[in-house]
Amino acid sequence: MRREDLGDLVAFLAVADERSFTRAAAKLGVSQSALSHTLRRLEARLGFRLLTRTTRSVAPTEGGERLIETLRPAIDDIDAKLAALGQLRDKPAGTLRITAAEHAARSILWPAIERLLPGYPDLTIEIHVDASLADIVSDRFDAGVRLGERLDKDMIAVPIGPELRMAAVAAPAYLARHPAPRTPQDLSHHRCINLRMQSAGGLYAWELERDGREVRVRVEGQLIFNSSMMIQAAAIAGFGIAFVPEDQVVAPLAAGTLVRVLEEWCEPFPGYYLYYPSRRQMSPGLALLVEALRYRG
Prior knowledge:
- 37% of the residues lie in helices and 21% in strands.
- It has 3 domains: 3-73, Winged helix-like DNA-binding domain superfamily/Winged helix DNA-binding domain (Arc Repressor Mutant, subunit A), CATH 1.10.10.10; 89-162 and 271-293, D-Maltodextrin-Binding Protein, domain 2; 166-265, Periplasmic binding protein-like II (D-Maltodextrin-Binding Protein, domain 2).
- The protein is built from 9 helices and 14 strands.
- The strands form 5 sheets. Strands 4-3-5-14-6 form a 5-stranded mixed β-sheet, covered by helices on one side. The chain has a 3-stranded antiparallel β-sheet with strand order 12-7-13.
- α1 packs across α2.
- The chain is α/β, with parallel strands linked by helices and 297 residues long.
- It is elongated and about 75 Å long.
- The chain has helices spanning 3-18, 21-28, 32-46, 62-85, 102-116, 172-177, 228-236, 250-255, 284-293, and strands spanning 51-53, 58-60, 94-100, 123-129, 143-147, 155-159, 166-170, 194-195, 206-210, 213-217, 224-225, 242-245, 259-261, 272-277.
């Protein structure tokens, strides 16, 4: 294979991944016209079209999809071997891309990265905050963070935090107007602040448990957010009952701006895990991060 052939194939994968010549060109550091020329040259050499182009989108053809299936394992293998060569360096280098939900990024990832990064100036860490269950292989992430109960079986998973617990909370002013709920069923008579799930687009059903009895409650109210911090702010402002991670509301509870309800229905559950593909050789940077995050109780 000629050197330019490999470059053309990498350019094709970039366009296929980004579904955009503009974003792919920026990613590769070339002009859009140069990238278009590269793809036309590759298509002419192969004798079939790789991409379907419209004014709004770019998508692989059937032939393009088959080429992607052929190229992807080879490129991933090259990436892994290049990362392994990084072990010859004195310190880890390169970029780590990690996807995590807002709460995990704020409470677990950032404190560890804040301590770690100053000692490794050649290491770059990109955190993609997203509550959806991303496919870290197809989305080109090095690792992701999920709750223990939501892990895929073909992933290596490392515990990075203790058990978690949710808290149902409301402002004293709200509870002065509305008697506190005594059972999950009482929530139907309350204004509650909803969470929009990014993965499925639906509203989160509150998961409550007491003495082994699990109850899922769909609540109603005037406000819907996709951020737990916004939900907390709305609860403090008296707009209803919120259901958020317990550690997030320690300060408001201590200050008395929020009060717990249904505490006996909020039992602990498995905490966060860092996960990554089992078939991918771990880079020095990822190995360093795993050790920094590993929860040892």
